[in-house]
Amino acid sequence: MRVHETAQGASAVDIPTRRMALRAGLCLVAAMATPIPAFAKALATKPNRELSFVNLHTGERLKAEYVHNGAYVPSALRAISVLMRDHHNNKIHPIDPHLIDVAHMLHSRVRSNVSLNIVCGYRSPETNAMMHEISAGVAVHSMHIQGKAMDIRLPGTHLAALKKTALALDLGGVGYYPEDNFLHIDTGAKRHWVA
Ligand SMILES: [Zn+2]
After folding, report:
1. How many A from CA of 103 to the centre of ligand 1?
2. How many Å lie between the centroid of ligand 1 and the Cα of residue 192?
3. What is the DSSP secondary-structure string of 72-111?
4. What residues does the ion ligand 1 have nearby, CB within 5 Å?
């Protein structure tokens, strides 16, 4: 944060230093505009991104080009959020586009040709509280509540292989649930666990 402090204190210093500070400040702004550089780097070669989904609870299917010419497609993101809604009460919440990117990378790295099976996407606070009562494995402050987590499986790909690939991506959280046959991925802090 030294850069930020320098930029703020620039009024009292001479012009060249001030110019440098301003330039540094602009660099900081540029860095902030790309909150997760790792995603940008990993996806730079894929300006068009398409992914197919099936919600295992509702049976709904969707094939969406959610990134076109390097830009997220709002209508596709909305359709994905609808598909990944809380099926208990039909509540919809925006799904983090970076989470879809993680799923996209995972899907392509394991070279799967089947739709991403959604076991759980968005989970409303009410549903989360209800599930937490039933299962100790459901966190009180689950990332699912923020639309930043999904539980998935990919028929034809071993869950262990999916987990290994997700860990290799080195982005966000990875939870391995072999008994329930799904992998949890989220865009929170890097961490991993086994149920
Ligand atoms: Zn989960």
Report:
1. 13
2. 12
3. E-HHHHHHHHHHTSBTTTTB--PPPHHHHHHHHHHHHHTT
4. 149, 151, 184
Please give the distance, rounded to the nearest whole angstrom, from the Cα atom of residue 92 to the centre of ligand 1: 17
Model pTM? 0.79
pLDDT of residue 139: 81
Q: Residue 39 is which amino acid?
A: F
**pLDDT tens digit string along 106-154?**
999 999 999 999 999 999 999 999 988 888 777 878 999 999 999 999 9
Q: Which residue has the tokens 């110019």?
A: 19
Side chain identity at 65, as an amino acid letter? E
For each of the domains in the chain, give its residue range(s) and CATH number, in order of start. 2-33 (no CATH), 40-194 (3.30.1380.10)
148 C-alpha to center of ligand 1: Å? 9
CB 80 within 8 A of CB 98: no
Predicted local confidence at residue 136, as pLDDT? 76
CA distance 82 to 87: 10
